[in-house]
Amino acid sequence: MKSYALSAPVDGSANSTETWRDGKRYLWLLGLVVPLLPLVAIGLQRVSGLDAVLWLGPVVLLVVVPLIDLAAGLDPTNPPDEVMEALEEDRYYRWVTYAYLPVQYIGFIASMWFIATQDAGLLGKIGLAITAGTVSGVAINTAHELGHKRENSERWLSRVALAPCFYGHFYIEHNRGHHSHVATPEDPASSRLGESFYRFWPRTVVGSLRSAWDMETKRLARRNRHPLSRKNEVLSAWGLSVVLWGALVVWLGIGILPYLVIQAVFGFSLLEIVNYMEHYGMLRQEVKGTTRRRYERVTPAHSWNSNNIATNVLLYHLQRHSDHHANPTRRFQTLRDFPESPVLPTGYAGMMVVALFPPLFRRLMDAKVVAHYGGDIGLANVQPGKRAKLLAKYPAPAAAADPELGPDASARGSVGTSGIDDVAAARCPGCGYTYRVSAGNELEGFAAGTAWSDIPNDWSCPDCGVRDKVDFVPLAHEPA
Prior knowledge:
By secondary structure, the chain is mainly α.
């Protein structure tokens, strides 16, 4: 197993160097179990003749994995600071995520071929479509990991992973919308205290699509292009899905289309049920005394975490969601657990099942949200129309702070470059992205020479999406 040096030798001997090893290094390959499920299901059906085995995908994800989570326990280990850079640069971990895609596509195409050409009965075919949808849903997590990276090749692979479930706009909305607005009422992907998954689902599906389209419209307007331009990244992402689905319909016939829709809806619903529980009730407090509505910077306290090892390995540390929101460009193997992060009762896979039963979910989670805010639900993100009922059930402590006051602007830790015009460049203090005036950013719609003062005040870092313009550090000279 590969080891990473923690410190330099103290006596000149190479053997005296302390090392650290990633105990999960080869366990990450278990992430390939999910894309193999359609092939396994088809094989089992051919051997046994039982159509029921074609439902293998949801059974594994929603029954087997939660049980393994309970048996395997927690993984609180964090990589030490000294190895973070070397661990980030270890390309083995990149290839672990890259490997998901070819297996995903083989299983997806095989599933559609089987549905179109083999006699498995209607329920069996629906089961296999949902098994394929399980793969597509988990592939959105793979796309999530790849889409946050700076390399263009990985961002392109992210769109490829999203194509089977026709959810390519996730790449735009998640990176540039969700990460900027997370845990606020403006975010369609942040659920509210008292909101059921069934109320959240249409709000987030429609709201995320609208958010992605609006952001692309604004970006293209800065480039003097129409929203229906071929440069629209929402349309180009959907174009991959149109080509993929169109090729399958031409090959296998129009009868395959309902099953493509079934797997897509099931797949992106898995994403949205994870979104539902990741920020349930979490709210960043509004910053007062600013020229436009802004919120305190996202912290580890704004995401629900879990350290159940089985789901962590299966979903590339997605459950360490707090560190991901603080450091979106950080690779999965270096994500860490924070003691201040609120913790779910069990792993994401188990909580997905619980979320399907709103009374049970709220029985487990509402009290946790209230406790997280010291008994004051006025500090939580509450479902409109439920506030009075929830206040009656959870009355605020007498000494609770007035939520209308909000934190002052210093809570943002802002450097405050929005009022500084004469800068050659400005750097994001979070991820290090640097805007150079001489180069501009053509993709964002800023031509070379666009002054920092001409960048809109509501613009966020294009790499991490966490820091706003006002947070950027001014540079008198462009970095080499």
